[in-house]
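Checklist before submission:
- one chain only
- standard amino acids only
- sequence pasted in full

Submission:
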Amino acid sequence: MSKYVGLYPGTFDPITNGHIDIVSRALKLVDKLVIGVAINADKGPLFNLDERVTMVEREVKPLADGRGVEIEVKPFDNLLMHFAMEVDACMIIRGLRAVSDFEYEFQMVGMNARLNPEIETVFLMASDKNQFIASRLVKEIARLGGDVSNFVSPAVAEQLLGKLQ
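Returned file contents:
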């Protein structure tokens, strides 16, 4: 029997409680979840690629314990659908926070389906307590001296504040 492999891509700069929520719910849908950490230099990430991969690995490891689901964190810098084929994914997992996310994601689904119609995109709505969390806003709050403890884990908050000092 083949495994259901899901791919959850993002820049994770930094990984937030919203990302963790999507990961924990995606684990109910797949036998293996690959978290693809995009290099995406165009976004000008605060954390370098190695820091983001290590941060994501640390944050998601406890989620797989005892669930019988494998989690793998891998960096990627190629086309998402090519990366999905490399990791044998049958589905792309995406989180939706608001209507504004939907427009972009709708367009991406259409493009990705043309590139590979065999890979489905599955959307998970952000839980109500995480709908407003965005890495960009978390970084801005931290830069301006605000408390980010409601948006990221204590370890990520510490790493974020250390990076900004």
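Reviewer check: The beta strands are 5-10, 32-38, 70-76, 91-96, 120-125.
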